[in-house]
Give the backbone structure.
Amino acid sequence: MGHTLIKGLIESGAIAREQMWASARTETTCEKASAALGIPVEVSYQHRVPGAGMILVCVKPGQAAKVLHTLHDANLRPETLLISIMAGATTSQLETMLGAANPWVRAMPNTPCIVGEGMSVICAGRYARHEHLVRAHRVFEAVGECAAVDEAYFNAITALSGSGPAYQYLIMEALADAGVRVGLPRQLALRLVAQTALGAARMVQSSGRHPAALRDDVTTPAGCTIAGLLMLEDGRIRSVLARAVEEAAKTAAHLGPPAAKDAAHRAGH
């Protein structure tokens, strides 16, 4: 995701290539990323931290403690904006782990950012002001759409739009298999499903109408569409999808950085 965000920022002109740098855990990864992005990518980045105005923290929650400790000890300026895309890591946890009053913005993008069609949400931490949210918004709108929301919604959003592409891929795979079952070549079936999903999503976005109303437009009396819809309802597709999101949200609530969770556990005792 870090690679995708950097590429989007460069291509959109939001940040000049000369102002960017990145880090990765291995020399091999650094070399590949540097060649692909045209920016310095290094394992050791402490010398770059003091000059940074904004740092995107694109690591797994389990790596958070080490990364934030490194930033803190590398003369991180107090005004440097930090943006986290870690699932389950709250701004309060990040502020505590960093041990400094830097502005934090928490974000949850999704993988369609890779093709410039991502859906990201952001929220401000205790020390972040409106201008910090504006800067973060500029980052994520370079790779799709972005909305500012209350942090209380983040676990639900992680489950819905963060994990959402995987649900859509499963549905598309199943529909393509169904096309094969009724006699279509697989590549044609997949093309039909993908474009239909894209077109349906565009209609929801552009028309402003409820999906149920758009569905009714396709559903003629005694037609094939209502026959198919009844089979989906028999299979309890609504409740299955709702339970999938519900379970994913529960899991997201337990994905925070280990150090922060341990501190919270000790505080509770």
